[in-house]
Amino acid sequence: MNKKYENLPLRNGVGIILLNKENKIFVAKRIDNPKNFWQMPQGGVDKNENYYKAALRELEEETSIKSVKLIKEIERKFTYILPDHLIGIIWKGKFKGQKQKWFVMRFIGKESEININTKHPEFLDWKWIDLEDLTKIAVNFKLNVYKDIKQELSEILH
Prior knowledge:
alpha+beta, 4-stranded mixed β-sheet, 2 helices
């Protein structure tokens, strides 16, 4: 990491591992990185907002999904650092990465509820994937987070 960025703080964030009834994981392709990288819904925590409420808000803002049931809040937090070429651009240059609290949720609605064409769209496309494919679709700077989540999720689901 470039020395001028090392003192930047990490942004508090949340992530949502959304499972359908077949235990497939919801992922979406970002508008700002349309290569073959997909991610689970995630985003920042507002000041004085609790993590679970932030997760529900982010999920709805990004996917229109409201019909969920909490399965588990993962105890530990996961951290990623942005690559140098994105630090200073993303989040108005205030943060070098994120420290995230993740929640495993079950989607209990109908697929017609899913709508990524939101007020401020972040995604081009979405799909359900198998757990073993989770680390094949992640952008490189989030890969370690996705590896750790894959491990956590395999313990929860088995």
